[in-house]
C-alpha cells in the first residue's frame, strides 16, 4: 500500500492532465477553442475548491483517508466517463454565441461548468488529501504527482493517434479507476475489488460506443452537412486534429471569384479539421483553358510577371500550389504544418486532386511555415501567404491564436527569401468594420520601411474585388508597363485598384462601391508616415503583430468597448471579437470564484493566526510564477517546433518532470530559511535570464533536426523547471512543521492562482507581449521571496 | 412589426411596407415558433435553414425596387416568406429551394395562401432558371463565397441582384449587384444587424 500510493498518485495526476487536454480537443472540435478554454479554466478551479473543502473537513477526511483516497480516485474516473454522457445532452441545446443573445442560455453554460468541474474536483481532493496525510514525504509525493502529470501529456499525445475526440475522455478515465483499485484498503478489498473492476466496463463501453457531442451550428462543417446529399466519407484522427472529408453535391469553392467569370465552377469535396474549414479538393485545372483562380485577386502576381519559383505558405489542400503550376512555375515549394492532412493529400486523396503532390516540379514540406522560413535559404520569385480571414468573418474566434506567419518579424523573414524582383502576395476578405485588410496593409508597409524603402506606393499594390482585397509587395519598384497591366487586369475582372503608382481617387470604386468610403482614407493614412496617430485613433487594434505579441486576429481595444457597444449595439460585440471577449469574461469569473474559494474557509477557521499571510503570498506567488513561465514557454515553443501539440507536450512534460526531479532533490534539503531564499533567488535569476535570451536562442537553433531540437529544448527547460519544482514542497513542509492546518488552504490557494494566472498570462501577452509576462513571473516569485524573508 | 421594426429603421419604399403588412409572417413559421413570428429576429425552420429577420426581408425587397411588371428570381425559398412579400408587389416570382422537404412545404403553403404568381422549384439554385431568364431582379437569401456566374448572366440589362455577404447566421452586410451596359458593378451596403438565430428544438 505504501509504495502503491506513489503509483496511484502518478496515475491520477497523469489522468487529470490527459483529461484536460482531451477536453480541449473535444470541446474545440464541437464548439470553439475559446469556449473550451473558458469551460476548462473554470473546471480547473476544482483544484482550488478541493483545498477549501479539505480546510473545512480535514479531520473527517484524515480519519477515513485510506478508504476516501481509493474511493475518490475511482469516482474521478467514473465522472470522467459519465460527464460525456451528460454533456452530449447538454450541448444539444447550447452554443456559445447564444449566451449573448438569449440570457436564458446561461443556465446551460453553468451546467457545463459544473459537469466538467466534478472530475477535477474529485481528483484534486485525492491529491490534496495525500499531501496532508503524507506531508513528511512531500518531496517524493510531489515528484510522483509532477512525473505523472508530465507523462500524462505524452500519454494523451499517443491516444490522439488511436482514438477520436469523443472516445478520449473514456480512454483517459481508465487511469484513475485503476489508481483507485490499487490502493483499496485491505479491510475493504473483499467488498470493493470486484465492483470496482466491473466499473472498468463503463470506459470500455464508451470507447466502443462513443457518445458524440453535437457540433455547433456555427461551425463550417455544420453548414456543409445541412446541404442535401452531404456525407462525411472519410475521417482520420491525429494530434493535428480530427480530419473529416465531406462530399457535398452542391458545394463549389471559388472564393472571391470575379463577376466577369462565365465558366462553370465544378463541385468539389471539402476537408475539415476539428469542424473548421481546411480546404477544398479541387482538380488542378478545370479544363485546358482556365483555372478559376485566374479570375481572382490571387492572379495579380502572375499578371505582373511570370514567377519561375513560387513558395506557398500554410498551403492547406494545395489550391494555390496547383495554380502556380498551372501558371507555368518551374519550381513550387509547398509548406503545410498539418502533416496528417498532407499525407492524406499525397496518398489516399491523391486521385481527387490529380496527384498534385506527385508533380516533380512540386516539393511539399510538412512544417510550420515560419519554422520552414527560418531554416530555408532559397530565394523565390513569388511567396504566397494564406488567405486572411474566412468568408463571412470568423468573428474573432482566432483572436488568441499565435499567428507567427503574420507578424512583422515573419514578413521580414519572408522578404529576405525574395529574389531581386520577387513578390509577396496576400489576399484578405473585406470585413466590416474593416480590420483584417488594414492590419495586413500596416504589416506590409512597416516591413518596407524597416527594409529601408520609403517610397511605399512604388512597391505596394492593392486591388479590390466585390469581397476581397489582394496585396502585392514587390522587392523592386513596379515598372510603368506593370502598372498598366494591373489596370487592364482590374478592368477585365471588374476589380478596382486601391494602391497603385499614380492612382487617382476616382479609380478606386469604378466597379465595387463602398457605402462607407472611409476605408480609402484609412488606407492612405496607413501608407503615410503619420500612421501611428491613425493606429491610436482607430477603434480597433490594427497595429502590426510581432513575435512578441503574435495575435494578428486580436483587434479589440479595451478602452473602446463602450464606444463599440454604442456604435454596433449591445449584443454585437461578442460577434465582432468573441475570442478575446471570452477570455476577459473568463478572467472575471475565475477571479470571482477563486476569491470566494480562498476567503470562504477563513470564516470557519480564524481570520488571524500565524502563517496566513505567508501561506497566501508564498503559494499564490509560486502558483502565478510557475504558470506564467509555462504559458510563455508553450507559446514560444510553438514557433520552435512548428506545431502547437508538439510544443505543448514537450514543454508540459519537460517542465513537469524536471520540476518533479527538483521536488525529489529538495526532500533531502534542510528546512532552513536560507535554503528556500536561495532556491527562490535562483528561480528569479533564471526567469529574468530567459526573458532576455529565450527568443534569440530558440531562433538560432530552429534549423536543428527534430530530435536534436527535442534534446535542446529539454536542456533549456530543465534548469529553470528543476528549481521551480522546489518552492511548493518546501513550503508545504514548512507548514507541516509549524501549522499543518494551513496545508489544505495552501493547496487551494495554489490551485486557484494557477488557474487565474493561465488566463492572466494570455491577457498580458496580448496587451503587453511575452517579455512582460516573464518579468511579471519573476515578480510573482519575488512576492514568495519576501514572504519567506518575513515568515 | 412594420412600424416598430421596419419603417423606424429607414425602410421608406411604400410598396415594400404594404407588402410586409399583407404577407402574414406567422403563417410561414413552424407551429412551435408562431408566438415569436413577429419578433425582431430570424427563426429556425429546420434543415439548418432560417426565416430571415423581418427587417432583412424588407431591406432586401426595397433594395431591388420591385415594380408590378417585374419577373423576379429568388434563390433559397426557405419558408416562402420572402417570395410571398415579393409576390405582393410583382407579377411573377420564381423561387428555387435546394432542400426538397422545404420546397414541398413552401409550395403547399404558398398554394394554400393563394400566391398563384409564385412558382417554387426544387433544385440547386446555382444554375438559376435559364428557361425563364432574364430576370428584372434576383434575390439570393443564402450567403455565398462567390456569386454564381449563371445568375449574373440571367440578370436583365439594368437589373439588380441582392445577396448577403457574411456568415449565414450573423448577417453582416448586403451587396447589391447591378448590370449596366454589359458591365457588372457592386455596392457593399452598411451592415444591417447582428442577430444569430436560435437553434430549433427539433
Descriptive labels:
heterodimer; A: 791 residues; alpha/beta; eight-stranded mixed beta sheet; four-stranded antiparallel beta sheet; globular; B: 202 residues; seven-stranded mixed beta sheet; two-stranded antiparallel ribbon; 6 helices; 9 strands; disordered C terminus
Brief write-up:
By secondary structure, chain A is an alpha/beta fold.
List the SSEs and their pairings.
The complex is a heterodimer of chains A (791) and B (202).
Chain A: H1 4-30, H2 33-43, H3 46-63, H4 65-91, H5 106-133, H6 138-162, H7 168-182, H8 186-199, H9 201-208, H10 220-225, E1 231-236, E2 243-247, E3 269-273, E4 276-281, H11 300-304, E5 309-312, H12 319-326, E6 331-335, H13 339-346, E7 362-365, H14 369-375, E8 380-384, H15 408-416, E9 418-429, H16 436-450, H17 456-459, E10 460-464, E11 468-474, H18 480-493, E12 496-499, E13 512-514, H19 518-527, H20 531-537, H21 561-568, H22 573-576, H23 578-604, H24 612-641, H25 644-666, H26 673-700, H27 706-724, H28 727-738, H29 743-767, H30 770-789
Parallel strand pairs in A: 5-6, 5-8, 6-7, 8-9
Antiparallel strand pairs in A: 1-2, 2-3, 3-4, 9-11, 10-11, 10-12
Helix pairs in contact in A: 1-2, 1-5, 1-6, 1-7, 2-5, 2-23, 3-5, 3-23, 3-29, 4-5, 4-7, 5-29, 6-25, 7-9, 15-16, 16-19, 19-20, 23-29, 24-25, 24-26, 24-27, 24-28, 24-29, 24-30, 25-27, 26-27, 26-30, 29-30
Chain B: H1 2-6, H2 14-22, E1 43-46, E2 49-51, H3 54-63, E3 71-75, H4 81-87, E4 92-97, H5 100-112, E5 118-122, E6 135-140, H6 149-153, E7 155-165, E8 173-180, E9 183-188
Parallel strand pairs in B: 3-4, 3-6, 4-5, 6-7
Antiparallel strand pairs in B: 1-2, 7-8, 8-9
Helix pairs in contact in B: 2-3, 2-4
Amino acid at each position: 500500500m505504501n509504495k502503491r500510493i506513489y503509483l496511484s498518485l502518478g496515475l491520477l495526476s497523469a489522468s487529470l492532465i490527459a483529461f484536460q487536454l482531451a477536453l480541449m480537443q473535444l470541446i474545440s472540435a464541437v464548439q470553439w477553442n475559446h469556449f473550451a478554454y473558458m469551460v476548462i479554466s473554470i473546471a480547473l478551479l476544482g483544484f482550488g475548491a478541493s483545498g477549501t473543502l479539505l480546510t473545512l473537513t480535514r479531520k473527517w477526511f484524515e480519519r477515513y483517508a485510506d478508504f476516501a483516497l481509493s474511493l475518490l480516485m475511482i469516482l474521478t474516473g467514473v465522472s470522467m466517463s459519465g460527464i460525456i454522457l451528460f454533456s452530449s445532452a447538454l450541448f444539444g441545446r447550447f452554443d456559445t454565441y447564444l449566451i449573448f443573445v438569449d440570457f436564458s442560455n446561461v443556465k446551460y453554460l453553468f451546467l457545463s461548468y459544473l459537469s466538467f468541474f466534478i472530475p477535477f474536483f474529485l481528483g484534486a481532493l485525492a491529491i490534496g488529501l495525500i499531501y496532508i496525510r503524507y506531508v513528511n514525504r512531500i518531496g517524493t509525493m510531489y515528484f510522483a504527482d509532477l512525473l505523472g502529470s508530465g507523462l500524462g501529456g505524452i500519454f494523451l499525445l499517443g491516444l490522439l493517434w488511436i482514438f477520436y475526440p469523443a472516445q478520449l475522455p473514456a480512454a483517459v478515465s481508465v487511469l484513475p479507476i485503476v489508481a483507485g483499485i490499487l490502493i483499496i484498503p485491505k479491510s475493504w478489498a473483499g467488498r470493493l475489488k470486484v465492483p470496482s473492476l466491473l466499473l472498468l466496463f463503463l470506459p470500455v463501453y464508451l470507447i466502443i460506443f462513443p457518445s458524440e457531442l453535437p457540433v455547433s451550428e456555427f461551425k463550417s462543417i455544420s453548414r456543409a452537412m445541412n446541404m442535401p446529399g452531404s456525407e462525411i466519407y472519410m475521417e482520420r484522427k491525429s494530434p493535428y486534429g480530427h480530419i473529416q472529408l465531406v462530399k457535398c453535391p452542391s458545394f463549389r469553392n471559388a472564393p472571391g471569384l470575379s463577376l466577369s467569370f462565365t465558366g462553370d465552377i465544378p463541385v468539389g469535396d471539402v476537408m475539415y479539421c476539428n469542424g473548421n474549414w481546411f480546404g477544398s479538393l479541387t482538380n488542378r485545372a478545370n479544363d485546358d483553358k482556365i483555372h478559376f483562380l485566374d479570375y481572382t485577386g490571387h492572379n495579380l502576381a502572375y499578371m505582373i510577371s511570370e514567377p519561375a519559383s513560387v513558395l506557398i505558405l500554410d498551403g492547406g489542400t494545395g489550391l494555390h500550389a496547383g495554380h502556380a503550376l498551372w501558371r507555368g512555375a518551374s519550381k513550387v515549394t509547398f509548406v503545410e504544418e498539418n502533416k496528417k492532412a498532407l499525407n492524406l493529400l499525397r496518398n489516399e486523396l491523391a486521385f481527387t486532386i490529380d496527384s498534385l503532390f506527385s508533380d516533380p516540379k512540386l516539393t511539399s514540406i510538412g512544417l510550420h511555415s515560419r519554422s520552414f522560413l527560418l531554416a530555408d535559404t532559397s530565394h523565390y520569385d513569388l511567396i504566397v501567404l494564406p488567405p486572411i480571414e474566412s468568408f463571412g468573418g470568423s468573428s474573432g474566434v482566432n483572436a488568441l491564436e499565435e499567428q507567427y506567419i503574420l507578424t512583422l518579424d515573419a514578413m521580414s523573414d519572408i522578404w529576405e527569401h525574395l529574389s531581386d524582383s520577387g513578390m509577396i502576395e496576400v489576399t484578405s476578405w473585406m470585413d466590416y468594420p474593416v480590420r483584417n485588410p488594414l492590419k495586413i496593409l500596416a504589416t506590409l508597409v512597416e516591413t518596407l520601411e524597416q527594409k529601408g524603402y520609403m517610397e511605399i506606393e512604388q512597391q505596394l499594390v492593392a486591388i479590390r474585388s466585390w469581397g476581397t482585397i489582394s496585396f502585392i509587395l514587390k522587392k523592386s519598384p513596379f515598372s510603368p508597363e506593370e502598372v498598366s497591366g494591373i489596370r487592364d487586369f482590374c478592368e477585365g475582372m471588374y476589380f478596382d485598384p486601391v494602391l497603385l503608382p499614380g492612382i487617382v481617387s476616382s479609380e478606386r470604386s469604378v466597379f465595387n462601391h463602398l457605402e462607407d468610403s472611409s476605408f480609402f482614407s484609412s488606407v492612405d493614412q496607413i501608407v503615410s508616415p503619420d500612421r501611428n496617430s491613425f493606429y491610436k485613433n482607430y477603434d480597433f487594434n490594427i497595429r502590426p503583430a510581432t513575435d512578441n505579441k503574435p495575435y494578428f486576429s486580436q483587434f479589440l481595444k479595451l478602452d473602446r468597448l463602450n464606444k463599440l457597444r454604442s456604435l454596433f449595439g449591445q449584443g454585437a460585440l461578442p460577434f465582432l471579437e468573441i475570442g478575446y471577449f471570452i477570455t476577459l469574461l473568463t478572467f472575471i469569473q475565475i477571479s470571482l470564484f477563486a476569491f470566494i474559494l480562498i476567503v470562504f474557509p477563513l470564516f470557519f477557521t480564524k481570520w488571524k493566526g500565524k502563517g496566513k499571510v505567508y501561506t497566501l503570498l508564498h503559494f499564490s506567488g509560486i502558483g502565478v510564477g510557475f504558470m506564467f513561465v509555462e504559458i510563455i514557454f508553450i507559446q514560444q515553443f510553438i514557433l520552435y517546433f512548428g506545431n502547437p501539440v508538439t510544443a505543448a507536450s514537450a514543454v508540459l512534460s519537460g517542465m513537469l518532470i524536471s520540476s518533479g526531479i527538483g521536488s525529489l532533490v529538495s526532500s533531502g534539503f534542510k528546512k532552513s530559511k536560507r535554503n528556500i531564499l536561495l532556491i527562490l533567488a535562483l528561480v528569479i535569476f533564471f526567469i529574468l535570464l530567459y526573458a532576455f535570451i529565450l527568443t534569440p536562442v530558440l531562433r538560432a537553433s530552429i534549423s536543428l533536426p527534430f530530435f536534436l531540437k527535442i534534446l535542446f529544448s529539454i536542456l533549456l527547460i530543465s534548469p529553470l523547471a528543476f528549481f521551480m519544482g522546489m518552492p511548493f514542497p518546501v513550503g508545504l513542509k514548512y507548514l507541516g512543521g509549524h501549522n499543518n492546518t494551513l496545508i489544505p488552504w495552501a493547496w487551494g490557494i495554489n490551485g486557484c492562482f494557477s488557474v487565474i494566472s493561465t488566463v492572466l498570462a494570455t491577457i498580458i501577452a496580448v496587451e503587453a507581449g511575452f517579455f512582460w509576462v516573464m518579468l511579471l513571473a519573476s515578480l510573482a516569485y519575488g512576492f514568495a521571496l519576501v514572504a519567506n524573508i518575513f515568515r | 412589426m412594420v412600424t416598430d421594426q421596419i419603417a423606424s429603421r429607414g425602410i421608406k419604399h411604400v410598396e415594400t411596407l404594404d407588402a410586409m403588412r399583407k404577407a402574414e409572417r406567422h403563417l410561414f413559421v413552424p407551429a412551435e415558433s408562431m408566438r415569436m413570428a413577429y419578433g425582431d429576429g430570424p427563426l429556425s425552420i429546420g434543415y439548418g435553414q432560417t426565416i430571415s429577420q423581418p427587417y432583412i426581408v424588407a431591406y432586401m425587397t426595397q433594395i431591388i425596387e420591385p415594380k408590378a411588371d417585374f419577373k423576379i428570381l429568388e434563390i433559397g425559398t426557405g419558408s416562402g416568406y420572402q417570395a410571398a412579400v415579393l409576390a405582393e408587389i410583382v407579377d411573377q416570382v420564381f423561387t428555387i429551394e435546394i432542400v426538397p422537404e422545404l420546397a414541398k412545404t413552401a409550395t403547399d403553403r404558398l398554394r394554400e395562401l393563394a400566391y398563384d404568381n409564385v412558382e417554387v422549384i426544387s433544385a440547386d439554385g446555382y444554375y438559376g432558371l435559364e428557361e425563364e431568364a432574364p430576370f428584372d431582379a434576383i434575390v439570393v437569401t443564402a450567403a455565398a463565397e462567390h456569386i454564381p456566374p449563371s445568375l449574373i448572366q440571367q440578370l436583365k440589362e439594368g437589373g439588380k441582384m441582392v445577396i448577403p455577404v457574411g456568415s449565414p447566421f450573423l448577417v453582416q452586410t448586403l451587396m447589391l449587384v447591378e448590370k449596366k451596359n454589359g458591365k457588372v458593378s457592386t455596392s457593399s451596403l452598411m451592415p444591417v444587424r447582428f442577430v444569430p438565430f436560435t437553434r430549433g428544438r427539433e
